[in-house]
Amino acid sequence: MTSLQTSVLATPAPAPSVALDVARLAQLHKALADTLRLQSLRLLKNESFGVLELCRLLDIRQSALSHHLKVLAKAELVAPRREGNSIFYRRAFIADDDALAELKRAAFEAVDGLEIPPAQALQLEALQQERSELSLTFFNKNAEQFRENQGMIVERDKYDSSLVDVLEGLGLAPTAKVVEVGPGEGQFLLELARRYGEVIAVDNSADMLERSRATVAGYDNVTFVHGEAADATALLAGQADLVVFDMVLHHIATPAATFRDVAELLQPNGLLLVIELCSHDQDWVRSSCGDLWLGFEEGELDQWAASSGLQFEQSSNLALRNGFQIQMRLFRKPGVRSFIDAFSPHDQRANATTHN
Ligand SMILES: C[S@@+](CC[C@H](N)C(=O)[O-])C[C@H]1O[C@@H](n2cnc3c(N)ncnc32)[C@H](O)[C@@H]1O
After folding, report:
1. Which pLDDT tens digit goes with each residue over 191-225?
2. How many Å lie between the centroid of ligand 1 and the Cα of residue 284?
């Protein structure tokens, strides 16, 4: 990769081993022995929520919820994360060498079998809708100036050449079917349209979609879908060779659910390339860039991918301006492609893809 600092092919460091002791065992059982705490864990199955959001979902006062969250965090069942002025909670990652790993997995599995009560389900839907509208309103209002604001985070020219290098390294066939979610003004879409047989551009902002359409004018291999990743499944379920999210996931209300939609789109052996901000604390991006999330920890992305059946393949980090850092993460949907696809003479991927 070019002038940017990169650390290619980094595999996450193994977690330190966590021994079993009677205090941890007791904490775990204590945390699980409460209806509200179990309901909180159920809600956190797929997404992270802020404390106030959880209060709304569970219809409980903040002081009472804080106590429950403390107990869950002490038992290492949830993990807090600061997002600007708010604290968000997600389910904790379970390290394989945690002596309580099996118990925790069994607890999560049991919790996931619980029905979400109708009142909570209604609030959940409303909340996700509100998050989506926040992001959508931003892009519909700021299509003109978003590039300028984004410039405070990335120097697009340098970053683009790195993306092109990564794309070349994937070794996809010229006949490949590729989806880009959130193409924005369409610079990367242009690279995809130049290289691959069939490209689908999906954006939930009509204004942004028009901008990307103008950028790739002249290419007749691009189909435009006004909507979200799930809306592309009507065209390409189980057939995509590559799905790309370039600085989009932090605008999406339900990133974990989006990974599941991608898994539906991909064919066996298909790839998901996520280019995304690393977790940061610069709250101003919410109002200036329409961000819903202040980046993501790599473990978060990996966990969502794994629970959608996608395997981590490679990662690379780019150092950028104003303290922001971008991570590129590549995931693969495991499986065997059909006989005809696998032996297509145009398909160079099996030989060209690099693994770690
Ligand atoms: C920050 S821009 C990134 C644009 C482009 N990929 C880039 O890196 O320059 C985010 C884009 O994602 C789109 N977007 C946001 N939420 C989306 C969603 N849920 N589904 C599809 N597109 C979305 C926005 O409309 C916008 O075009």
Report:
1. 999 999 999 999 999 999 999 999 999 999 999 99
2. 18
Q: How far is CA 165 from CA 6, 159, 169, 181, 247, in A?
A: 12, 10, 6, 20, 17
Tokens of 259: 């990974």
Centroid of ligand 1 to alpha carbon of 56 (angstroms): 28
Q: Which CATH number fits domain 146-352: 2.140.10.10, 3.40.50.150, 3.20.20.80, 1.20.1250.20?
A: 3.40.50.150
344-to-197, 221, 297, 308 alpha-carbon distances in Å: 14, 20, 38, 27
Q: State the pLDDT at residue 83.
A: 73
Q: Which atom of ligand 1 is nearest to the CA of 139?
A: 25
pLDDT, residue 296, reads 92
Half-sphere exposure of 163 (CA within 13 A, CB side): 23
User: Residue 343 is encoded by which pair of tokens?
Assistant: 């032996």
**pTM, to two decimals:** 0.75
